Prior knowledge:
The protein has about 375 residues and is α/β, with parallel strands linked by helices. The chain folds into two domains: about 5-240, Aspartate Aminotransferase, domain 2 (3-Layer(aba) Sandwich); about 245-380, Aspartate Aminotransferase, domain 1 (Alpha-Beta Complex), CATH 3.90.1150.10. The protein is about 35% helix and about 15% strand. It contains 14 helices and twelve strands. It has a seven-stranded mixed β-sheet, with helices on both faces. It has a five-stranded mixed β-sheet with strand order 8-9-12-11-10. Helix 1 (about 5-10) packs antiparallel against helix 2 (about 50-65), helix 2 (about 50-65) packs parallel to helix 9 (about 230-240) and helix 12 crosses helix 14.
Amino acid sequence: xxxxxxxxxxxxxxxxxxxxxVPPIFQTATxxxxxxxxxxxxxxTRSSNPTRAVLEANLAxxxxxxxxxxxxxGMSAVDAVARLLAAGDHVISSDDVYGGVSRLYNQILxxxxxxxxxxxxxxxxxxxxxxxxETKMVWIETPTNPLLKVTDLEIVGQIGxxxxxxxxxxxxxxxxxxxxxxxxGIDLVVHSTTKYxxxxxxxIGGAVITNREDLYEELKFVQKSVGAVSSPFDCWLTLxxxxxxxxxxxxxxxxxxxxxxxxxxxxxxxxxxxxxxxxHPQHAIARRQMKAFSGMISFELKGDVQSGITLMxxxxxxxxxxxxxxxxxxxxxxxxxxxxxxxxxxREARGLTDSLVRLSVGIEHVDDIIADLEQALARV
Length: 380
Ligand SMILES: Cc1ncc(COP(=O)(O)O)c(C=O)c1O
């Protein structure tokens, strides 16, 4: 099956009792057994639920994986992967990650003995240099939030195999339509399904996909034990969103490219980071491993910090909002919003300045998006 067909069909059968083409929302906590030890495959919704099972099968098919596990948020998916490790284990992570991921590792998981080192994984040599005897996992975000750095997954897969390390990729910005990390031998793919996968700002959710049965069994055990499961209604809404993922990602990418070009040629813009632009330092890798470049852009204006703030306060169509990957264009100030939990000196050292503006280009008509940015830039 081609990707677009999988998005509409994979894991989805007509409901056997009614023929309903859309899988029902099984809004139930428990399931009646026929007798002790004998039921219809479900016993309690924290462990499994038929609507969630359809979503998990669909997500696995889209990533080209065998197993999918769905969570109540992207962060609970990130947390579930960390629970595959034990006290004393060490993780090497991309330095530019979503602020919530570094907050989880630096302020919560450190209390339980997990250690983490952040390196710029767009140069994979930095990963090898950071390996210690207790290193167990490499955590990659590509493209990164918010600087859009790209990491070569072929090399990361090789490093993982050579050094016997788990490899996990947060592929939220790319989605399986644009990038399938499992094809590079990556062990675990992680998503905030809140973003492009559901696509309409309608739910908070997360997922992990893998080909490895041992990891799947462990993830299912963690899911059942911790209970950070997505609700049947959220699963259903996500499934609805996924059906149009290919169409939306094509449009997000097309609009993203046009907006990135517009920004790069604007006299008030100092620099633009978008993997689709030839000026992006990892443009060649992005071209090789991604089908297109998504709708995420970050940029800085000339002048001081106030310039970016004036721009973000002046948009009319674009929404000043935390989040990304939905049909609406959203503009964000990472330093005070998505990455406020990262200490200022750490942010600055990584290039995440107070002037940085992040744009999640939606699927409105691109002329309207550009016209809005143009009028806001005229006020700077
Ligand atoms: C790359 C990335 N990973 C994980 C998350 C966390 O996802 P959620 O907000 O669904 O918990 C986010 C949220 O912005 C993100 O951007």
